[in-house]
Amino acid sequence: MRLLIFLTLFFANVAQATVVISTEDDWAPWSSKNSRGQAVGQSVEHVRKIFKILGISTEFKAVPFSRCLIEAEEGRTLGCFHTAKTAKNIKMFDFPQLPLVEDDVLIYTTTPPGLGASQLSDLKGQRVGVTLGYAYSPEFDAMAGIQREESKADLTSFRQLVGDRVPYIAIFKGAAESLLATHPELHRKNLRYFTVGKAQFYLAFSKKYPNSQKLLLQYNQAAQRFPTLRVQPLQVTVYGDRAYPPYSYVTADGLPAGIYVELLQEVFANMKQHFSVKLEMVPWSRGLQLLETGAALALFPPYRIPSRTYIDVYSEPFNTERVVFYCSDPKLKEHARFPDSFRGLKVAITQGFVLDRRLAQQFEKGAFTRVDVLDNTQGLIQLANHNVDCYINDSFSVEWAFANLKQSKHPVLQKFSSFNLSETFVLSEQPAYLAFSENSRFHDKQQFIKVFNTQLKKILAEGRMTVIKSNYTAK
């Protein structure tokens, strides 16, 4: 109520129904100029809403930043955004209480990790591209010994970086993400960045515009209702196998579930400041296809198979799976040798799975007859019905499926009551990973991998995988 009374009193004293404000014409997503010359962007709408609740209309002029400052300083417009609160600017303008935008200052580079700079102090003596007239973070701006190479726009700096004309550029996170999303030519496989501070930007009010002081007071009151703009976490979709219980599967309600799903959900929750991750469960063969074409950034849980050349990065491993032969003939177990003991047998394997390089070679040679099944349940049923001689898959997942089948009312329950499932031969142990597509066009891939691995190692060190697996063992 007091705010309403305060604003009403001000309306009586401030005559103008419309104010003119200058803004940058090339700093998306905050402000830029569309094809019709109109100012657009998140900051434009933010400022428009603040003045709207004051009953004041706004007219925005999208101009180069240097002109934006001049127009506001001379009183031709009420103000200019996005203006940093530097000692020089404080003398020229009046500043609101709250910043309009807060953003991270990033250093982008194409130098390999471990060889190039990875923190602010490493930039001493280095050439760094910057945009003319921009203030960055206080730490970066105060750092001596950096050779700053100015260009007229962020896009120009970025093109110089990917064209190998400068080894580093300074750029704000919001601007970098916008440019990478709209300029595919900027994508480079080895593109990476690190953070060198934060910066705040304001709608700087002119000291000469009519009624600017009163308008600033009104603005301060109304702006309390609107939080400072920040870069939102990037939206990312990660794909998983929908039919690999207990590691990853889909419940009857269509929800992702499983040991790996629970573990990765904890990892992704710790990444939420940077990335908003959605899990989508798909058939395994479909997931591999998405990874190969680059339609998917990442897929879990593939083994490391040399033939999958479209995978260029594997995460830190988060589990070790035991690839085991389960065979109906108990005599095979006594002196089982691979591949000799299994020649001529029918071996069931989940469709799309490449469990072991040696196994794949034997299938290619025709040493075994391969029978594809949809999942562990179908593989066990084939084995119990003696339609195949052996079934091969990860031991934990097979035994979990077997226990669930025995407890269910499945039609083959009678056969399972006398069927003895036992390991015949351990073929190999395979780490499980989150695999990343070489062909993905996701521009923040390297940072996603870095953050993911950091949070994954932290959660594994806390023993979370052991706890999650124990819950499934109990079931």
List the defining traits of the structure above.
4 domains, 34% helix, ten-stranded mixed β-sheet, D-Maltodextrin-Binding Protein, domain 2, alpha/beta, 475 residues, single chain, disordered N terminus, five-stranded mixed β-sheet, 16 helices, elongated
Note down, in words, how this protein is organized:
It is a single chain. The protein has 475 residues and is α/β, with parallel strands linked by helices. It folds into four domains: 2-100 and 202-230, D-Maltodextrin-Binding Protein, domain 2, CATH 3.40.190.10; 102-200, D-Maltodextrin-Binding Protein, domain 2; 234-318 and 433-474, D-Maltodextrin-Binding Protein, domain 2 (3-Layer(aba) Sandwich); 320-431, D-Maltodextrin-Binding Protein, domain 2 (3-Layer(aba) Sandwich), CATH 3.40.190.10. The protein is 34% helix and 29% strand. It has 16 helices and 26 strands. Helix 1 (2-13) runs antiparallel to helix 8. The radius of gyration is 30 Å and the shape is elongated. The two termini are 58 Å apart. The model is unreliable at 3-15 (pLDDT under 50). It comes from Bdellovibrio svalbardensis. This is Transporter substrate-binding domain-containing protein. Residues 1-17 form the signal peptide. Residues 20-110, 237-473 form the Solute-binding protein family 3/N-terminal domain.
